[in-house]
Amino acid sequence: MLLARIADRCIGLVSLLVLARVLVPADFGLVAMAMSVIVFVDLASTFGFDLALIQKEHPTREHYDTAWTLQVGSGLLCAAIIALLAYPGAWFYDEPRLLPVMLVLAVSRVLESFDNIGTVDFRRQMNFSREFSFSAQKKIVGFVVTISLAVAFETYWALIAGSVAGRLAGLILSYTMQPYRPRFSLAARADLFTFSMWIFVVGLASFASQRSSHFVVGRQLGPAALGLYTVGSEIALLPVTDLMAPINRAVFPGFARMTSDPVLMRQSFVDILGVIWIFALPASFGIAAVAHPLVLAMLGSKWVDAVIVVQILALAGVMHAATSNHYSAWLALGKTRITALMEGLHFVILLPLLLVLSRTFGLAGVASAEFFATIVSVLVECVLISRAFALSPSAYLRGLWRPLIAALTMAICVTLLLSRLDAYAFTAKPLLQLAIALPVGVAVYVSALTILWWLWGRPHGAESLTLQRLSQVLRASGPFWRRRFPQGGSR
């Protein structure tokens, strides 16, 4: 799953590098305005029927057919609502170009609703290689269409066409890669809704907490500012979306199999949390430290105002990443209502901060509001998850302090290094700054983490689990390469 996400992001980053130089921030902002409305409709109709199939121990064909029927019905309803909201959305943002964009995206939502529900078995059976192939092929189709049209016509319609092409490819692939053929049925609707109703509530709360900043920026600061904020937040949250999301996508079906053994599930939760901290903390702190040369190297000087967004939201991403496997745990335990409550708490704290800080400090105020709201909601959730697994604060935080100190040490060293490079007139060479700072940051972090682990007596935890897994991979790769190249590499 991590490989799938890396492939997805490599395609996405190449796409972003090209599009950022062909299009302008206002083009991204226009599409972000449309997506703000569409994501609201999608989340308002998200019942997580695929998650219900994974969580159930023995789903029947009736469950699959009912899930597909409800998926189609909700998709058609969403498309109709999106079409109806096209004109009000254009009026709200005072952007007439939004009307045709939303109508086209409504059609693409219809296509997606007919996806084969049988593809959920890729995750349910933990056949993640098939899941990788399925998601990667969809992304490649959208990438080719988007880049081709953007280079040829230099228009925001390239982003829309790429989205439609990706969804159409997903529809076709879902039936060619999975032999299951769904039928219309509602026989198991009561059974599915028991679990899925809270997924629906989570979707609404998640939209309110995650998209409110986009509405505020678009309304008060305009499409250019929204484009800067959207792209800046995407860069800042790369560790959450690119490292943690694929891990937790694989963790959920694993947790679902452990619910009958709470001791095993608790230990697995702690182990996975520690491994997440080892990789997420340095990634988030690192992005914050190199935000300026990173934005200039990736996007160019016209995006320099996004640097402050990246710096602040990367620090908020530390908190998101450090608790990213909580959702999988709540989902496996059937306690999705807690996630809904946490998203609601985040929104209640965030909205007044957004309205006040955005008027005074602009994009920096919006990012700061997100940072403070995240801190409060994450602390509350940590207390709840500790109680759910009967974990003491020391047991929960045992694997955090070493990666945290090592990551902070790395961030300080990289920041000082970049300041020295600026003094030697490297400011105009962001790629060279990154080429120097990134390997230094990795070396400092790995060294600091290793020293702390050894000084603490090499305890069992994320460090030992990571080393154990790495040694297993290396041992397994030896026979593979000998079999693959029996003549000493002559092939």
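That was protein one. Protein two is written in the same sequence-then-structure order:
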Amino acid sequence: MRNFNTQGRRPRHEVADAGALRVEVRRAPGELPQTVAADLLDLSRHGARLRAGTALGEQETLTICLRRVELGLDLHLTGVVRWRKQDADGRWSYGCEFKDELPLETLGEFFLCGILSARPACSG
């Protein structure tokens, strides 16, 4: 059996098809811009790594909306930005922790639909 938890982290899974989902981040009232388009880089039951062109604050509470119309997927996950890093291209990468754990069934559907790769995500 593989041990994906070698560095004390819970398993994260890479996105297999970056264009498979429409990802939108909704910020708390009063934060501008109110809605930010993002890319999902990896996903676990406990959080996600995102990339966006807009700076979000550490500890900022937000709603991550994942959509794929042809599958009827419209998932809204409340989370908190736990870390952020500006990339060389000026975009931002974020680590977000979900308020509630993502159900195993939902994660399984992401694999079955080819949205997630069975390969664990790399650190970074």
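Residues 104-112 form the longest helix (9 residues). Keep this in mind for the problem set.
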